[in-house]
Amino acid sequence: MGDSFEVTMDEFLPLRDVVFNTLRKAILTGELKPGERLMEIHLANRLGVSRTPIREAIRKLELEGLVIMIPRRGAEVAQITEKSLKDVLEVRRALDALCVELACDRICAAEEERLGKACDEFERATQTKDATTIAEADVVFHDIIVHATGNQRLIQLINNLSEQMYRYRFEYIKDGSRHDNLVDEHRMIYESIVGRDKEGAAKAARFHIDNQEKSIIRQLRLEQEQAATRRRI
Fold it and tell me: What value does the mean pLDDT take over residues 20-42?
């Protein structure tokens, strides 16, 4: 288990929530890897807490689908499967297309300006080669579009998918060869929205998701091949 994550105390949150947020972030960012066992004693020692908040956090992570319980083995980080990926992206593809169409009609001048800046900031983020920085800049860009719709139900649906998307986004961003394409895809979406081109914006949004799916599946298959190779050695 990697030792790069640590608990960050928050005086406003109960300890169990702090531990949950810490483990959740470690899973979403790949610091705790798919298939990795979550040993209560090890995690308790690592984070300097008792086993009780660890146990509670693992239970909540299981409800979110980020952890699975294996008979006679205990808890482990859920694998990212092609089926789970396709299920999430199938929904996100439709919602993102709807978001950009609505944004074409409803985005205000201030939001347009923020979206342009977010586009530029994302390009700068890709130059850092830091996956967390790039992922956060990507979230900011898409969040501006979602909120520009002004549709609270749609915003809520997107938020419900956002954590699972963050995990897949990290897999996508790990592929450094795709960064220039990502910048171009964001620029295409931005220009379509400010140009009030609903058809072009929806097409660009779907193209963006389709490319994510292809890239992540390629990454997953590569990691599976590497894991199989290690087992044979």
Answer: 90
4 pLDDT band (50/70/90 cuts)? low
How far apart CA 36 and CA 70 sit, in angstroms, is: 12
In angstroms, what CA-CA distances link 153 with 44, 132, 141, 183, 231? 39, 28, 19, 29, 47
DSSP assignment of 71-106: TTTEEEEPP--HHHHHHHHHHHHHHHHHHHHHHHHH
Q: DSSP state, 68?
A: E
What value does the mean pLDDT take over residues 213-233?
83
Contact present, 109 and 165 (Cβ < 8 Å):
no
| Biggest distance spanned by C-alpha atoms of the chain | 59
Phi and psi at residue 103, in whole multiples of 5°? Answer: -65, -35
The pLDDT value recorded for residue 72 is 86
What pLDDT is recorded for position 9?
A: 57
Cα 199 to Cα 204: distance, rounded to the nearest angstrom:
9
